[in-house]
């Protein structure tokens, strides 16, 4: 057995840890954090004001909305206003929501397919005039929509697509902005994955579908969210093409509440609140992909 060595001077006292006193710099840092938090809370509350007004006025009566004395919430919440909106014979609200959902989903799916294929082709497939085609796509982003509105309407009218879902969906199935985002992303996509797929005998289409698409989910989610929100909020094109009540979208249905001879304010607020619910759900579900997709798209390059 080995003998333990003992300190001839006895056990040494354990040094105590002295807490450093907070200096003026620490106080400034805490004050800055508190100020920043207060500003963020104030901005968040300011951002939530329109949503509060939609809920408050949607569940109130006409007298509560137009009353000069403002209350945070009316004494009685009228939940029957929601059913009253869907029972209004002048505005087919349920049908309009279905039409908007179909148009937004079809437009999003078509844009993701065509724009991603175009972006992948411009980024990877060797073609003599690839840059010229890409610059032409970028040039379309500089053309105001009002310039192509009348020719597009004449074309859709000549095909007999007025007051139909075909006329509302097909002309919006491609986006130059989405093509630009996909092309920028695929330019920085790892070539090693594609080279490994070609060694296994995959062509461009199978490489795109089996290798590129599964590894590009963030940019697909980001572009899909932007396209879905834009298609859901579209107003002018559905207003001109959807001339029949059965082809109205939710935005066109909302406009009828303000153009009627008698304006029912509580119905207008309830309808507006109902119309934004799908957008809020889509944004909450895909918000983490939006930032990741934009960061990986290479827009800042």
User: What's the alpha carbon Rg, rounded to whole Å?
Assistant: 29 Å
Could you give the distance between the termini?
Answer: 70 Å
SS class: mainly alpha
Mean pLDDT: 84
The number of strands is 0
Largest β-sheet summary: none
The secondary-structure element order is HHHHHHHHHHHHHH
Q: Give the number of helices.
A: 14
Strand content: under 5%
- The outline comes out as flat
Report the uncertain regions: none
Helix content: 55-70%
Report on this structure.
The protein has 301 residues and is mainly α. 68% of the residues lie in helices and 0% in strands. It has helices spanning 24-58, 62-66, 80-86, 93-124, 130-140, 145-158, 165-169, 176-187, 191-199, 204-212, 217-233, 236-241, 250-259, 265-296. The chain starts with 23 loop residues before the first helix and ends in a 5-residue tail after the last helix. The mean pLDDT is 84.
Outline of this structure?
The protein is mostly helical.
Q: Which short descriptors sum up this protein?
A:
mainly alpha, 301 residues, flat, single chain
Q: Which SSEs are present, and which pair or pack?
A:
Blueprint: H1 24-58, H2 62-66, H3 80-86, H4 93-124, H5 130-140, H6 145-158, H7 165-169, H8 176-187, H9 191-199, H10 204-212, H11 217-233, H12 236-241, H13 250-259, H14 265-296
């Amino acid at each position: 057995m080995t003998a333990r060595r003992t300190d001839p001077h006895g056990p040494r006292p354990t040094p105590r840890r002295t807490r450093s006193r907070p200096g003026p710099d620490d106080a400034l840092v805490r004050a800055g954090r508190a100020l920043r938090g207060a500003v963020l809370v104030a901005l968040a509350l300011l951002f939530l004001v329109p949503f509060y007004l939609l809920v408050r006025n949607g569940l109130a009566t006409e007298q509560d909305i137009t009353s000069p004395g403002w209350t945070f919430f009316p004494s009685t919440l009228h939940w029957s206003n929601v059913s009253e909106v869907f029972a209004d014979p002048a505005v087919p609200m349920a049908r309009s929501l279905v039409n908007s959902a179909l148009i937004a989903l079809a437009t999003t799916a078509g844009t993701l397919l065509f724009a991603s294929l175009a972006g992948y082709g411009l980024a990877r497939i060797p073609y003599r005039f690839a840059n010229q085609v890409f610059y032409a796509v970028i040039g379309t982003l500089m053309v105001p929509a009002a310039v192509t509105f009348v020719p597009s309407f004449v074309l859709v009218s000549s095909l007999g697509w007025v007051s139909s879902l075909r006329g509302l969906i097909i002309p919006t199935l491609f986006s130059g902005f989405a093509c630009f985002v996909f092309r920028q992303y695929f330019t920085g996509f790892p070539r090693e994955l594609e080279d490994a797929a070609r060694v296994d005998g995959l062509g461009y289409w199978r490489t795109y579908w089996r290798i590129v698409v599964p590894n590009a989910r963030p940019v697909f989610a980001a572009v899909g969210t932007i396209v879905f929100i834009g298609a859901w909020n579209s107003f002018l094109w559905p207003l001109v093409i959807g001339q029949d009540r059965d082809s109205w979208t939710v935005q066109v249905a909302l406009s009828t509440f303000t153009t009627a001879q008698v304006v029912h304010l509580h119905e207008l607020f309830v309808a507006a609140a109902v119309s934004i619910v799908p957008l809020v759900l889509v944004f909450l579900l895909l918000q983490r992909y939006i930032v990741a997709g934009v960061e990986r798209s290479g827009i800042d390059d």
